[in-house]
């Protein structure tokens, strides 16, 4: 069932077998595995069914790194989490799982073979049953054949676009589940540990309206996101001053994103030959697959660089008045029927993490519909010519050039980290401070990959590659990249407690009943969209929890106040 924790009918203190902090895809994938079983689950959801401004404000924080990083950008505090805004891309990890001798701190303690059964389960969770996959790629051919590259340099990897928006798709299941309780507007304030910190006794929770209480459980799962998981461990310091799981000062370190930036432009007489195979808007299949242009593993090893992918963006020349008016009217019509999720996406994307102009200009400015209608009437000829170009397989507006934009793996770096700042939020909790750092390997990758991508793309379309100035400089300028909201690494997985926060089963080292779900456990991220692996790890964690509960079917310790979840 789903209830508002702030309501008087909901008791302040509850008991469960499993308490999950967070109602995003990581938490939901764990919790859904127990629907209809005898295991009782309580999900502490730090927002409502929709995002609300005052709960969103709890994500605010500061940045002291370079490039600057806004910790409030693109994180959604509502049932379904940030995946209410996701781009739907799914792909299994490839060589990011492997130890690569030229990348310090690389490699996962689990192999692809160990994760593969969980990826198959994740395929069903994400609604991708019609697609098969292998390590590092789906194998379903895309509708438009991608370009052929020199495979010693570049390769095409395939990702699948999930049709599932998890919060809405699985809402009714959680509403009807008798053994699972979702507490909306319940925010974790601290995980209270036993003396010595070897286990968690209860999760202390509260609302912005002053209600306070706790959830007592046999197992606890932090599933609050790549930044928030680390923050909540650091805030849980009443018993362990440095924070739970932080005996070796690893919590919050190795913070990673997928940095992205413009690498240059391709000037060619046939730009559509380069852009059309990679245009995601042309797919007709409701569950499509799309190719991505990626560095080959051979090139990565030869040049000792990180992994990366690239997208070619057609940059239009002068847009005729009639086409501009037609687009404006379509945008105005969409705005009138826009649901809360799309409206919220625009609000969240007002805050940027250093995006360059080509991203900020993706949404056209609004004009009055009367003016647009007049321009449309005067521009009928423009529309007719555009229709002819479309029938010929060309873009409706002539392309001036093709911008090439890279999306990169980030080097695992212990100096790149999430800590607690001095300011506090509305719950009285210290806000997060992000020190996002890129190192010499990152910069070496940008410069080397730019040439590999640009020269090979220019070759296949008989064009010319023009490198961006920031990649030509010799004085190590600030990289012109921005974050893509794939927050990873802050509670990384390792068999060794000295270099990781959780073990291979996602249990926190030294805390017997505390586990972490989500991309914060990624030791390395590759270039891959993280959601598919987040789901696979969530389902894997659910299996471990089920086994733990079956091995120790003990009742919860007696407490003065008890309230069954069901």
Describe the protein's architecture and organization.
This protein is of the alpha/beta class. Helix content is about 25%, strand content about 20%. It is built from 15 helices and 20 strands. Helix 3 (about 110-125) packs across helix 15 (about 530-550), helix 9 packs antiparallel against helix 12 (about 370-380) and helix 9 (about 320-335) crosses helix 13 (about 380-390). The longest helix is centred in the last third of the chain and has 21 residues, at about 440-460. The protein is globular, with a radius of gyration of 24 Å. The relative contact order is 0.21.
Strand content: 15-25%
* N- and C-termini, Cα separation: 8 Å
- What's the β-strand tally? 20
Oligomer: single chain
- What is the averaged pLDDT score? 88
What form results from the Cα inertia axes?
globular
Rg over CA atoms:
24 Å
Global structural class: alpha/beta
* Unreliably modeled segments: 337-341, 349-366, 555-566
Number of continuous helical runs: 15
Largest sheet entry: 8 strands, mixed
Helix content: 25-40%
């Amino acid at each position: 069932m789903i209830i508002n924790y702030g309501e008087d009918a909901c008791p302040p203190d509850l008991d469960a077998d499993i308490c999950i902090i967070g109602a995003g895809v990581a938490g939901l994938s764990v919790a859904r595995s127990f629907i209809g079983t005898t295991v009782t689950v309580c999900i502490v959801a730090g927002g409502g069914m929709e995002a609300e401004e005052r709960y969103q404000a709890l994500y605010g924080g500061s940045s002291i790194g370079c490039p600057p990083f806004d910790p409030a950008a693109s994180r959604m505090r509502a049932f379904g989490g940030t995946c209410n805004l996701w781009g739907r891309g799914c792909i299994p990890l490839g060589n990011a799982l492997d130890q690569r001798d030229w990348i310090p701190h690389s490699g996962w303690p689990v192999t692809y073979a160990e994760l593969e059964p969980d990826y198959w389960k994740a395929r069903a969770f994400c609604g991708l049953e019609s697609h098969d996959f292998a390590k590092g790629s789906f194998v379903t051919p895309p509708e438009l054949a991608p370009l052929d590259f020199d495979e010693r340099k570049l390769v095409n990897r395939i990702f699948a676009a999930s049709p599932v928006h998890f919060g809405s798709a699985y809402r009714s299941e959680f509403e009807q589940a008798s053994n699972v309780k979702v507490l909306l507007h319940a925010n974790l304030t601290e995980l209270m540990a036993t003396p010595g910190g070897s286990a968690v006794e209860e999760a202390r929770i509260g609302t912005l309206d002053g209600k306070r209480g706790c959830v007592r459980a046999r197992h606890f799962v932090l599933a609050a996101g790549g930044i928030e998981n680390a923050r909540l461990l650091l805030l849980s310091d009443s018993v362990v001053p440095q924070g739970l799981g932080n005996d070796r000062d690893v919590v919050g370190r190795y913070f990673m994103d997928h940095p992205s930036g413009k690498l240059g432009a391709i000037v060619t007489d046939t730009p559509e030959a380069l852009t059309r195979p990679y245009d995601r808007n042309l797919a007709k299949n409701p569950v499509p697959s799309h190719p991505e242009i990626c560095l080959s593993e051979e090139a990565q090893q030869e040049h000792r660089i990180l992994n990366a992918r690239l997208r070619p963006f057609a940059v239009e020349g002068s847009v005729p008045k009639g086409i501009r008016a037609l687009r404006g009217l379509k945008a105005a019509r969409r705005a009138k029927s826009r649901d809360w999720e799309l409206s919220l996406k625009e609000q969240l994307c007002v805050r940027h993490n250093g995006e360059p102009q080509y991203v900020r200009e993706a949404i056209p400015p609004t004009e009055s519909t009367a003016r647009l209608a007049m321009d449309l009437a005067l521009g009928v000829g423009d529309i007719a010519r555009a229709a002819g170009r479309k029938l010929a397989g060309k873009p409706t507006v002539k392309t001036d050039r093709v911008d090439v934009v890279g999306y990169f793996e980030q080097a695992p770096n212990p100096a790149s980290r999430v800590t607690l700042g001095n300011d506090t939020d509305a719950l009285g909790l210290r806000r997060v401070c992000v020190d996002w750092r890129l190192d010499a390997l990152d910069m070496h990758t940008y410069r080397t990959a730019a040439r590999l991508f640009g020269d090979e793309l220019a070759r296949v379309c008989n064009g010319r590659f023009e490198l961006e100035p920031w990649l030509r400089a010799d004085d190590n300028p600030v990289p012109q990249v921005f974050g893509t909201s794939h927050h990873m690494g802050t509670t990384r997985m390792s068999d060794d407690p000295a270099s990781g926060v959780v073990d291979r089963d996602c249990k926190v080292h030294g805390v017997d009943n505390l586990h972490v779900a989500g991309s914060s456990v990624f030791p390395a991220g590759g270039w891959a969209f993280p959601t598919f692996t987040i789901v696979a790890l969530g389902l894997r964690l659910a299996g471990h929890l089920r086994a733990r509960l079956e091995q120790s079917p003990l009742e919860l310790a007696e407490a003065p106040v008890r309230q069954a979840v069901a």
